[in-house]
Amino acid sequence: MRLAVAGTGWGDLIAEGRGPRVAVICLGVWLNAADSLVTATIMPTVARELGDYVYFSWATAAYMAGAILSGATAARLSARIGLRSAMVMAGLVTAAGCVGSAAAPDMITLVAGRAVQGVGAGWIVGACYAAIGAIFPQRHLARIFGLMTSVWGVATVLGPMVGGAFAGGPGLWRALFWAFAAQAAGFSAAVVWLLPGGAAPADSRAPWGQLGLVLAGVALIAGADLTASSLTAAALCLASLAVFIAALRIPVSPRDSLFPRVAGDPTSVVGAAYVSYFALTAAAMGFSVYAPALLQKLYGLSPLQSGYAAGLESVGWTLSALAVAGLSPPWHAPIIRVGAASIVAALATLAWVMRFGPLTAILAAATVLGAGFGLTSGYVGRRVIAAADAADKEVASAGINSVRQVGNAAGACLAGLVANFLGLATGVTRMAAERSAVWLFLLAVPVAAIGAAGCWRVAAAKIEVD
Fold first, then answer.
1. pLDDT digit string, tens, across residues 135-157
2. Could you tell me the residue range of the domain that residue 393 belongs to?
């Protein structure tokens, strides 16, 4: 393996006018991270004030569906109208969705606003990934991915506090959505001011076949999230996965494709990386979704304490990503392998300690789980961009976010099926929590192992990095 790298560290990252571009990307990631984390905290208050718990889960499902669809089309949108124009539009769409949510008189209107927010957020993050592949030298990619991870870590720390503050009084949650609308509009203004004008829009056609399959996959995931039947939800999840795989493999002109040409080949570096992103993200979703509830029921933690305990995953992710961001090339492959193994080991450990304790072991496993993602994500992403053909770099980079979004949705669906089957659908009883504490993580281990195999394939590849 031979990797050629130049650069002088963090100072070089922000030199030659790159600092403002890094700041814009971090702001875009912040909008997505903070919105997701803070909104989850205030949703019980929102549903109570609007008086309709029937549509409670729809607010999350609508946001997720919009984010998956727009994330898949972000790179193509950037190619069609230019990167700067795409990012400006994404910020304005997000702001519009926030305004709709802030002014919502009922849950149906709020769900519509959340769907628009999801579309804007998916475009923002996807465009940010496309920008990374288009305007930054390879030598800076690991540090940029580390900074993006640190933004998520900050949002994890601040999210519960901010959400709790806005959930404390009647109507305060509306002010939170107004605040996010202002931030999204500020993002669009910052893009105009700080990013250079993009290249001329590409002369390409819309890949309607792929778009149709992505839409179908989103609809199937949304249906799985909303159905009350575990068997139906399982069938819809499997069908959505098949549809997304078909979207990767459908014959499309390389110039017009939503995804890089080798994305559907798991033996390629890009395909193996996408497998790793999807499977590892899906495997960890059970912890993200159910850890707070399990910790409250089994160990007597308060909602705030359980939120911060689950947030150790993001803390581990942030610290490890920043710690390895500046390592020399010979370390990259071993770091990827260690990170993948850490995720599998952490989930296997959680299958025991989440049920039987002690609490300190749970906290340690959560931190190791996050650290595994911090060790793998940056360097795997760097290799995705390096391995892609010159014409595919923006698409390959933006595809990382799309694959993660689908992994999040599939993982949440899988975790929901397991938890509902074990009794959590009717309430978080102690018996249901004890059963779920084992099986949510035990069943995630083979999924994570598939992702780890993808990481091993990526780590073993011989790649030239500029």
1. 777 677 767 777 777 777 677 66
2. 261-466
